[in-house]
Amino acid sequence: MSQKIKIAVDAMGGDFAPVEIVKGVIQAVRETDAEFILVGDEKRIMEELKDNPLRSRIEIIHTSEFISMQDSPTSAVKKKKDASMAIAARLTREGKASAMISAGNTGALMEVALLYIGRIQGIKRPAISTLWPVKTGRAMLIDSGANADCRPEHLLQFAQMGSIYCEKVLEISKPRIGLLNIGEEPGKGNNLVVNTYEILRQSGLNFCGNIEMSDFIEGSVDVAVCDGFVGNISLKTGETVASFLTQILKDAIRKKFVAKIGALFLKSVFNELKKKLDPSEYGGAPFLGVDGICIKSHGKANAYAIKNAVKLAMKAYESQYINKIKDHIGGVQKSKN
Is the per-residue pLDDT at 254 higher than 80? Predict the structure, then answer.
């Protein structure tokens, strides 16, 4: 694509902002041909940029307002209209940026995205799509926390958007769709899941039926669909268990000399494991259903995660997946009229 990609980055979002955010953008400047708009406290941003020779590809838009992780999303978005993530969203909506990235407050970012970027026409509920490390590589969980209460038609659209994203951005042919449930049998689960099963079965998607979390981790599907309540609990549980097991392993190695010797021989194995479990490898989670590219990085995102979020945003922009969602949903709407 000949058009230059410009990415708006919320420099004040996340636990390690703006230090890690700015470092990540600098790394991205080195490794990509994108241009950037850093939105945040200019003085603090310049303390990190200093006289960096790559500064010419980074524009700074100053604002003294930002939304913290502790802020109530709804009230913060109403009161802080010039918050860094809000300005980044407006730049995206106005076409001054090709995409936006933030590691800030997830709830606030979703509200900002809906308020300033807006939903794709026909999409009832945007959703957070998170990539997971699975036995066969990676797979998507959608919704990971945007919608606690859903109806079957919402989950159908999550499946449709997830399938399109996997096909266009992740380059997976005919993505396999699974419905996250407590068992594989069609009649299992609550009313939402039972009713959604029938809709997905007749959807024309590559629907593989109900799956349990163990099936998802085995890599039996490319997209696991669920409501945001189940998705967010699954996401946080997975992150906690991975962190817990890693810490147990580290503690056991420290306690025994023989284990330390063995760890030296297995260093490459441990590094590979760490890389696979590290959310920084995936950069962030796109908000699917929003009429613009909005990438949510982890709240603890470091420079490496931000750099990867930039690469994800670039790939998403070049894939034109949003137009594919618009075409698909538009076609569905027309067929109903």
Answer: no
